[in-house]
């Protein structure tokens, strides 16, 4: 079965501390992995995807196929990073259907 | 360019009624997907439309249906509403580039449906 698991509902850190939002997936085949972010009162938006291998707003995520993980990391959290983060996967090249995890609320304390 | 537009933003309906939600994708986007977002279940895929055809469907009862028009605008309909249908319904549009990795889903702000 296709599934995305985000084990933490809430992650609270202090400003300047490192952040790691966990994401594990189960999928038979080659998926595309994404991180979406939803800031307060804003629409859901793409943060980054594994294929582009880029860093956005200081966040990076590496796909580990052996551990079937796609954890989101940032070395120094900022208060403006506080938001809901969703990990998602999609079957490569076949459909635009996204399978989402349940999300992790990141709260960065001053 | 204008983003994905969903109307109405808020709806209150009573059990047993039906409701129609509308989504206007970004100009040039031909794929429209719908999601249901609830606190308990998170974001769940409802269906995807491309060129007026349903291309993919999630695990929702037949009360949930949709369609897409020739201008790519999409509607979803929920009949015989139940209390559990209360949710935020999100629409996302994408360029359809099959086989390409460079396809991003752009989301609307959603329609908040409350069933009483």
What percent of residues of chain B adopt helix (DSSP H or I)? under 10%
Count the beta strands of chain A.
Answer: 11
**SSE order of chain B, as H and E?**
EEEEEEEEEEE
Q: How far is it from the N-terminal to the C-terminal residue of chain A, by CA?
A: 40 Å
**What is the general shape of chain B?**
globular
End-to-end gap of chain B: 37 Å
Task: Tell me, rounded to a whole number, the average pLDDT of chain A.
Answer: 92
Give a verbal description of the structure.
The complex is a heterodimer of chains A (110) and B (116). Chain A has 110 residues and is mainly β. Chain A is 0% helix and 45% strand. Chain A contains no helices and eleven strands. In chain A, strands 2, 5, 6, 9, 10 and 11 form a six-stranded mixed β-sheet that branches. In chain A, strands 3-8-7 form a three-stranded antiparallel β-sheet, with no helix packed on it. In chain A, strand 9 and strand 10 form a beta hairpin. Chain A is globular. Chain A starts with a strand and ends with a strand. Chain B is mainly beta and 116 residues long. Helices cover 0% and strands 52% of the residues of chain B. In chain B, the strands form two sheets. In chain B, strands 2, 4, 5, 6, 9, 10 and 11 form a seven-stranded mixed β-sheet that branches. In chain B, a hairpin with a 5-residue loop joins strand 7 and strand 8. The model of chain B has no long low-confidence stretch (mean pLDDT 92). Chains A and B meet through strand 6 and strand 10 of A and strand 4, strand 5, strand 9 and strand 10 of B.
Write a concise synopsis of the structure shown.
The complex is a heterodimer of chains A (110) and B (116). Chain A is an all-beta fold and 110 residues long. In chain A, 0% of the residues lie in helices and 45% in strands.
């Amino acid at each position: 079965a296709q599934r995305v698991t985000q084990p933490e509902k809430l992650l609270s850190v202090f400003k300047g501390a490192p952040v790691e939002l966990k994401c594990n997936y189960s999928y038979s085949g080659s998926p595309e992995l994404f991180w979406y972010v939803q800031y307060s009162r804003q629409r859901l938006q793409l943060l980054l995807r594994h294929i582009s291998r880029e860093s956005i707003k200081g966040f990076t995520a590496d796909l580990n196929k052996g551990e079937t993980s796609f954890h989101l990391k940032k070395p120094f959290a900022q208060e403006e990073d506080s938001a809901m983060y969703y990990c998602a996967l999609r079957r490569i090249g076949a459909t635009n259907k996204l399978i989402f995890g349940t999300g992790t609320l990141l709260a960065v304390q001053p | 360019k204008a983003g994905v537009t969903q109307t109405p933003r808020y709806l209150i309906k009573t059990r047993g009624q039906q409701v129609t939600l509308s989504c206007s994708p970004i100009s040039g986007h031909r794929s429209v997907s719908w999601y249901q977002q609830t606190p308990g279940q998170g974001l769940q895929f409802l269906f995807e439309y491309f060129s007026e055809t349903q291309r993919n469907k999630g695990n929702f009862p037949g009360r949930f249906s949709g369609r897409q028009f020739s201008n790519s605008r999409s509607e979803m309909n929920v009949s015989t509403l139940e209390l559990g249908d209360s949710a935020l319904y999100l629409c996302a549009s994408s360029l359809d580039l099959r086989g390409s990795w460079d396809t991003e889903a752009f989301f609307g702000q959603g329609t908040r449906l409350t069933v009483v």
